[in-house]
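quick one, 1127 residues, struct below
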Amino acid sequence: MDPAAAVAAIAANPANFSELVAQLQDADNERRKAAEAVFEALKEQPDLCVTCLVQTLRTCASVEARLFCGVMIRKVIYYRSDQEAKSPVLWDKCTSHVQAVTKQALLEALVQEPDRNVASKVCAAVSDLGNLIYDKAGWPELMPALLGMLSSNQQIQISNGLSVLSDVAPFLAEHLKSQLQDIVNMLVTFLNCGNKDVTVAAAAASTSFIEAYEDSQARQLLSPLVQPMLAVLGQLLSSGDEDEARDVLEMFIVLAESCARFLRPHLIPLVEAMMRVAGANNLDANTRQLAVEFLVTLCEAREQSPGMMRKVPNLARSLFELVMGFLLDIEDDPGWHSANDDSNEDAGSGELYDPGQEYLDRLALSLGGKAVSDAAAPLLGSWISDAAWQKRAAVFICLAQIAEGCSKIMSSASYLEQLSRMCVVGLGDSDPHVRWAACQALGQMCTDLGPELQAKHHATILPALMRVMEDFNSPRVQAHACAAIVNFSEGVETDVLPPYLDTLILKLLNLLQHGAKLVQEGALTALASVADSSQDLFNKYYDTVMPLLMHILTTANAKEHRLMRAKALECISLVGMAVGKDKFRTDARSVLGYMQSVQAAGMDPDDPLSSYMLQAGARLCKCLGSEFIEYLPLVLPSLLQSASADPDVQVVDEDEVNADDLPDDMEAISMGDKCLMYRSSILEEKATAVNMLSCYAEELKEGFWQYVGPVLKLVLNGVEGQSPLIKFYLNEEIRRSAAALLPSLLRCCIAAAEGGIQGATPAATAEFLRAAWTPLLEALRKEPEGDIQAVQLDSIAEIVEMVDKSLLAPGSIDAAFKVFDIVLEKADKRRAERASRRSTEDFDAEEAEAIDAENEMEEELFDQVATAVGAFLKKFGDDVLLLVESLLMTRYGAMLTDKSRGAEERRIAICLVDDLLENSAAGMAKHFNNVLPILLEATQADHADLRQCAVYGLGVMAAKAPVEAFRPHAATVAELMASIIRHPDAKNEDNDMATDNAVAALGRVLAHHAEALGPDGGAAAATLWVQSLPLKADAVEATAMHEQLVQMCEAQDPRIVPHAAKVASVFAEVLGGGTTYVAGPVGLRMAQLLHRLQGAVPAEVISSVLSTLKPKQQASYQAYMAGTVPE
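---
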């Protein structure tokens, strides 16, 4: 049918609309799509559309038609024809007459609609319309109509009236404040009336009103609603109405999330009631779960009421034991023992098992490690030797779940010893479920408590895991032992794995050749992780491992082996990165040829090889470097396609979502009465692709030039219908990678321009910067996550360091500093909010510790901003002094002068001051007198990093301050530096950086202010300085000081001449370090001096140093002495 003609027919005879409504619900796709086209056209005539819907709602005999119209009225009043957020909605385009008729008709339907389902849609339509118009045109008839319904003697009208009242409470709150006491009295009456529908509706309305008012006076008036609501819950459970009881439990959860402090006066009866519900074995699992959700949500409400739940007597122990009981909701299932795939991993688990794991994790994070570990100790100690395997397994599942939240306590030496011993016992348990759980605990604890756990207890953990890998009767446990090896290997210290490599790799190869499919997949991942951790040590195994991996890759073509093939590719790429391109080059080209043939043949949409190829390609690129450029046309098209993929984001009414009808990978997030849905698999692939783009750009530089334009467009503009990657708020990883991409892409532009690549010019670089600068600043300003802001700030700093200063106009710089100020202002407000929690009645030591941890995260943000500001100072110097001073005064000043601030905050502020002193001559002159006392005081700090920044700043002053300003203080500074250098603990691991900086500061005083150190120019200080060389902890200061020593020797400085033997040994040691501790050309000058010194000092002085050098260091030394800079 022609939509325009059909609309005209409806206009001529509105009765035709009923036929359209029937067609819109037709099961036949073609007829329904044709009807939908007509309805879309009808919405372009607002009066006609709304009138037809309302008339059909009020007059049609068909319940289905009225139900449809009730739903569609809600949708069309908000409809925008051009999708612009600022354009008028359809309701605003209706004439005042149609609006008046519609409002009246809806209020009549609210009272008169006989069908319960239709009536609920009318309630929702009235609520949505009220929300839309109340603050604009108003709806004076609404409240009288509701009050009329609430005063009737018909229960259905009362329920419907309460339903609408619940929905409109948020936007009518201010209008109803004067009547609040009357409303509370009315709601209490309804809560106590005994009618199920009315009491549940009254509970919903009570919840809405409690949420709507935040001031204490209103909250006090609303407090009497809580106990009747709790009584309603009890009545529903007693009468077996669990569906309605779950509705009320969800209302309490809403209050726990948003109004935890409001519930404090009722806390004890609430906790007791919810504990009874959660522990009632006769109730449905979902009901019990919701009761625990309420309690855990209250535990998590730290910002509103810190420490409140820890004050409830015995709560931590009782709640922990109750949740541990959920882990017993599991039985042995034959499917679990199968290891063909991971689909049966949850076989045997009941409805409470997974929630129990989640709640343990959340409790540990919210109640704190001490409360939960104290509650856990007696129960776990009892259960680990229980006859029931369910309890023994629960011990290890619990450890896996609480390790993160209890990491501070569990990381102690005694705890690690106990935990490792328990896990080894679990790995040897007679029941495979327990052994599996012990693998789970070990793997998770290696992540949460590592690398200390691996470093201290590898001798017991690894052999026990390898024994489990031999158990071919329990393939699922074998596979999970491989997964634990992966966790063990990630982040492990380099000296831990080597003694075990021969045995471990042999066992993994055995599993690859003889294990079940799930075991083979796990062995591949474990082998990849071990190779990644071992790096060049894996060369020894390459010729044995790689042929087997290539065989799996090229022959595992059956559909059931697709994941194994994908994991083989992952393993090959990680092994290749470990051994390097010289060893891997030939096989790498074979792998790339294989990827090319697979891509040409095409893959099924659900083939995991597709996403694994994205990552493998980036690893191969990193391994081969510029040799990979010829393969870019192979990998980039699919990578850009994945980065552009649409995750099918939808916002729908919650009541329209049917979980059974959704694809397996469709995630749904509830947002009030709406639901945000998206395809998680597509989103994950998109995130991976964006991250891989960053790898390619960073590695290939000018070789990536031709792709800079398309990638930049994705980052800044996105594709049609999607947000730009840099503002893709649905996924943090995408925003993080997009921010990191920008400096990598800019580096490509600059390298391509320098290399003379066609189209790559300084003008193109300038155009890139103009396009990217403002969106990057805007993304930083709006970013809600501090860790992503850190990446964005790092990108800004990198960009400033890279570009010519002429490319950043004053306006662009001003804009950056304005955003920095906004970011820090928000951080200051968050800090103030956290500080206000210290004054609450439930505040305790655990909460103080949690706040300190949050403040530390905020300090990192201040540190990142200071680093970005430092980049501007290094590039623009005095030109940005006023901007820096403004930021210092408003955001960093208190960190410098407030003695109550922590050492880390003072360090951050002093680092910024150091940058100002070093890069702004005007700033040095202006602030010298104010800053010097601050730095002198900070040199005495116990905090090593603070001390380091202070002595570095004094060194900068010595070198760059006006001579007449610093000279009066030179002797004092020299003596202070000497005292730091001579301290007995000066060279321990915590202090070595600060000590190196003190040596450097002393060296600068010697170089620039010898006259102030006495007639001999500070000979004693010079002796101490030479004896403190070489420097190795701080490579930057080492390079500077070793060059200064060369200069002083070349000048035959009399303060240095007496120390020829020491100088010779320093030179020999430094030259052995290659270019780590000395710049190449300076190293050549150093070698010339050493040639001269060889005849002036005893031979053993130099030979004793050379005897300590490793072969590579010997080669570096010999290269310098032969007149060449080592590679």
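The first strand starts at residue 650 and ends at 653.
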